[in-house]
Amino acid sequence: MGGPRYEENDERNLSSLEERFNFQGHISAADSMRREVHPELNILGKKRECLNSVLAPKATAIVVAMDVTRSRGDDAKVVFEKLPILMGQIYMKNYVSDPAISFAAIGDATCGDKAPIQVGQFESDIRLDTVLSYLWLEEGGGGTGQESYELTAYYYARHSKLDCNRRGQKGFFFFVGDEGFYPKVDRNQIKEFIGEDLPSDIDSAKIFAELQEKYQVFFIYPRKSWQQRKVDIDAEMQQRVEEAGGQYKDVDVRATLLWNNRNDLDLHIVAPSGEHIYFSHMRSDCGGWLDVDKNVHGETTKPVENIRWSKGKAPKGHYEVYVQNWRFHEPSTEATPFKVELEVNGKIQYFTGETKANSTGDASNVQAFTFDYDPNLRQVSETVESAYAGYDDVKIKNQWASVIPRENILIIDDPKAIIDVLMGALAITAGTDIEQYLLDMGERGQSAKRISETAGSLSGLSATTAIAKVDAVGLPGGDTGKKRQGGTKRL
Fold it and tell me: Where in the chain is the domain with CATH 3.40.50.410?
């Protein structure tokens, strides 16, 4: 870090965001079939530093870490479009001194994404455009309601160096996403993607606490209804089934098993005829068919199994669905979390569970569903909201509130408001009143609707900051010594 300023009139390629964000993974030197993180964003064995320089004597570190899984893949494009406004306003209004941004992309390491962590160096000029263009918008994830936010938190907590910390100031860290994080930082993921060998996993709460020793941490949450989330979850199930050649649509009865490691889990259904459909009896006389059977040899970290009766084929009667761990392919014999999606007569239900640790075969069986099917009771597809409880707004917000201040969870409805809210959090935390920031938004031509949404998102942060000011200087009305353009908040 330490180059010239980012200027709004710098030459940019804005002709096509699709062309700008077309990176599909760097080709591995060792294996031409393998795709990898771009070398400039690969942090294996590397640090990221935000240092003072002659041109930036009071560098302020800003991290923008974006979820690039299926549900949030377009946010990087929004940030790219608004980057000149972000940098220009920070300079013009002096919200913070000498800003330098490190962009990061977050995927899902647990579900086998090839690029679950991508991290750019702290930059302050047009090189920020280049960093964004190197992002691999993999749009992976595993349909579990969690992404690898905690792995990214670990990297910045322990492998970033900030000169602003040396002068008693924190940097700013913005997660942008709409899901929860995993409860532990996996030591194997740390070794694979960061290059550090640890003796055990680490509680995510501990890592977020360490991160907040260096940064003011925020979570910008573009809210989705459970109906919108349903589309993302169903898309993951459907994609895995159909890519493997299975039948997902036009069924009377379908059970789909999804898990995210190399173990060989098996889906079993006992049909009304008493026939047992599983890997040794894949097609039944009553029309049932196990048409996808994955991880016989541990070939993928995004496996799926699918048993279905095509429309008009399922017999009336009683069905039993259960999951078995046939064989461990992973080095650990810990329990494997899984999800079963059941469609009966157009109605979809979910069961979330895990296999038994250290168990295979019949000893590992977990019953998912029992149900009675009647072809005369066909329903219009209607999914119960509780089936998507892992994606519930309240659950996600409460998990984040357990590791960062609740007022730092900034909720928006329109993803195009990401930069407005991010910049407002910078300004308010560094000393600008929210009223002044909203006036600034009006000056740069933002609509009344956008200003109102931003005000609502920042209201909790603004109130908390105002209380802190009163506590620091006494009763309101005294001389606070506040200047219009404040510096960053003290540790």
Answer: 17-223+392-473
- Determine the average pLDDT of the residues in 340-357: 88
d(CA 364, CA 335): 10
What tens digit of pLDDT does each residue of 22-32 get? 555 544 444 44
Helix (H) or strand (E) holding 173: strand 171-176
pTM of the model: 0.71
d(CA 160, CA 383): 44
Query: Of 176, 169, 7, which is closest to residue 96 (Cα–Cα)?
Result: 169
Decide: residue 331, CB within 10 A, 0-12 exposed, 13-18 middle, 19+ buried: exposed
Q: Among residues 92, 116, 72, which one has the least CA distance to residue 220? A: 72
B/e letters for 148-170, b = 16+ CB within 10 Å, e = fewer, are bbbbbbbbbbbbbebbbbeeebb
CB 101 within 8 A of CB 62: yes
Coil, helix or strand at residue 322:
strand
According to DSSP, the β-strands at 317-327 and 215-222 are: unpaired
For the stretch 134-146, pLDDT in tens is 888 876 655 567 8
> What is the rounded average pLDDT for all residues in the chain?
85
With both helix axes pointing from N to C terminus, report the angle between 149-159 and 204-214 in degrees, rounded to the nearest 10.
50
Q: Which CATH code of 2.40.30, 2.60.60, 1.10.3470, 1.25.40 fits the domain covering 228-381? A: 2.60.60
| DSSP strand pairing (409-412 vs 215-222) | parallel
Q: Which residues does 198 contact at the CB level (< 8 Å), separation at least 6?
A: 187, 190, 191
Q: Which CATH architecture has domain 17-223+392-473?
A: 3-Layer(aba) Sandwich (3.40)
